[in-house]
Write a structure and sequence with these properties.
- The protein is mainly alpha-helical.
- The protein folds into two domains: 31 residues, no CATH class; 140 residues, no CATH class.
- It is 45% helix and 6% strand.
- A three-stranded antiparallel sheet has the order 1-3-2.
- β2 and β3 form a beta hairpin.
- α3 packs antiparallel against α4.
- The longest helix is centred in the middle third of the chain and has 14 residues.
- It is globular and about 50 Å long.
- The two termini are 31 Å apart.
Length: 190
């Protein structure tokens, strides 16, 4: 458990949009900094759902309902839910073709599942756009019409600067390589 903070320090620290590894927890009259919010119960279940989605055994709606039923506040689960929802759009298709063997998306989903099998904190900044497919963004005509393209471009620049995006949801390539080289994962379930 971290050191006690005053109310003013806690409010100053918890400014919106600030990327941080720790979370503030109210303990009686003061605040304490705790480690990130890794949900060790929900992550393996989410990894199993993601694997079923990638193999075409469940639809995107079933995936989203499954994540919602976990009632987890783990930020990586929120980010993955945003990513899958953006990939599916307004339809409820199987995403199995997108995650077919040998595709870039197959590599991504494997990396996402690998991250869910770790106890690493999700350290990417919270943004509105789907984090797992941000590099696919291309402005549409209505983005230009409403001048959203520049705002989204700035948001992407900020997001990509936070870490090594090519290994998202891992923040750093070193973390990804270390976890990838580990002979046994600590959690089963995916």
């Amino acid at each position: 458990m971290g050191r006690a903070w005053t109310e003013a320090e806690a409010e100053s620290y918890a400014k919106p949009g600030r990327m941080r590894r720790e979370i503030l927890v109210k303990t009686g009259p003061d605040w304490r900094i705790m480690g990130g919010m890794v949900d060790r119960v929900s992550r393996p279940k989410a990894a199993a759902l993601l694997k079923k989605l990638a193999l075409g055994r469940i639809t995107t709606d079933e995936f989203e309902i499954g994540l919602w039923e976990l009632k987890s506040k783990d930020p990586v689960l929120v980010a993955l839910d945003d990513t899958i929802a953006e990939m599916a759009g307004d339809q409820d298709p199987s995403l199995a073709p997108a995650f077919a063997r040998g595709t870039e998306m197959r590599k991504r989903v494997c990396r996402w599942i690998l991250f869910l099998r770790t106890d690493l904190d999700y350290l990417w900044p919270a943004e509105r756009m789907a984090p797992g497919i941000r590099d696919f963004y291309r402005p549409a005509w209505y983005d230009k019409l409403f001048r959203l393209d520049k705002r989204m471009l700035k948001s992407n620049i900020r997001f990509f600067a936070a870490g090594d995006y090519e290994v998202w949801p891992f923040l750093r390539k070193g973390d990804f390589e270390r976890v990838r080289q580990e002979p046994h994962q600590t959690w089963k379930g995916a």
